[in-house]
Amino acid sequence: MATATATRTRSVKMLADGAVRITISGRETSYWLDRCEGDYGDYRCYRLTKHSDDSLPGKVTVYYCQVDANNLRAVSCECPAHAYRGHREPCKHCGAILALLRAGKLS
Ligand SMILES: [Zn+2]
Question: From the CA of 63, how far away is ligand 1's center (Å)?
Fold first, then answer.
């Protein structure tokens, strides 16, 4: 039986030089991805720095994400989507990190 599902499609791709590209319904956003301080047990911290936006020169957007690497679930992110909907589904930042962890592409 068919069930209603979200129509947005998400994908994440590891690029060269430690960058990742998150695509949501055809819209691509690229970030630099690195680990940062603050690991606690199975919780790992990552920093996503958005590639510069030509329409906003000089603006740097950084999100600090924390995921539970053992249970593969989002713990925290600073973006509004996590604040509003993080209890139901991971935001795109945590979702991308979880997808890469699941695929064995991230440590
Ligand atoms: Zn987020």
Answer: 7
What is the sign, positive or negative, of the torsion defined by CA atoms of 77, 78, 81, 83? positive
- Angle CA 17–41–98, to nearest 5: 45
pLDDT tens-digit profile, the chain (107 residues): 555 555 678 899 999 888 999 999 999 999 999 998 877 788 999 999 998 766 777 778 999 999 999 999 999 999 999 999 988 999 999 999 999 999 999 87
pTM to 2 decimal places: 0.84
Supply 101's token pair. 């962890």
Distance 106 CA to ligand 1 centre (A): 17
